[in-house]
Amino acid sequence: MFDKGADIPYNMQCCPDAGTLDVRPILYTPGRSLSFRFTLNLSDMDFGGRRPVTRPVEVSGTVRNRAGVLSLELSAETTLDACCDRCGKRFPLPKRTAFRCTLAESLQNGDGDGDEELVLLQDGQADAGELARTAFVLDMDTKILCSEDCKGLCPRCGANLNEGACGCQPEPDPRWAALSALLDAPDEP
Ligand SMILES: [Zn+2]
Ligand SMILES: [Zn+2]
Fold this sequence. Notes:
Helices cover 12% and strands 33% of the residues. It folds into two domains: 7-138, no CATH class; 153-189, no CATH class. With 189 residues, the protein is mostly beta strands. Strand 4 and strand 5 (69-83) form a beta hairpin. The protein starts with 6 loop residues before the first strand and ends in a 5-residue tail after the last helix. 17% of the residues are buried.
């Protein structure tokens, strides 16, 4: 059996059911922890018509039994194939999502660290893959810019204004156009 208090390395990488975490070895032993690591494939995930998660998402984390309460911490990271919403430039964007929750067998014994999310175990198992996937998806930015001061594209010729001015005149405001038409009108004789 395992040594009491030892950190049990729990490698799920070669497990066919990647992401399913069996926490029974530490469920009733305060002080013990279990670490895990696996990869998620989110390449099919659609975000605004694009699929930016082209590379595997590396998930790693730990479940600790703290005085009888199981707390799970994980981080999911990858490099996105991002596309600037303003100028359309594609660029690699490092992305890291952190997530933590309390694992409990039932709602009664789940009074963990206050307002931490509570996730119920099913037969001593937690679906860490699903937790990581959900946390990662919720953490995706709705707007991605190649830089905070991206100038975007010219609305008239489509040139990338980050690469310099295109020479187009700014679009005249229709209200000013009406006014200048009035001013240009020949004076009444
Ligand atoms: Zn841009
Ligand atoms: Zn232009």
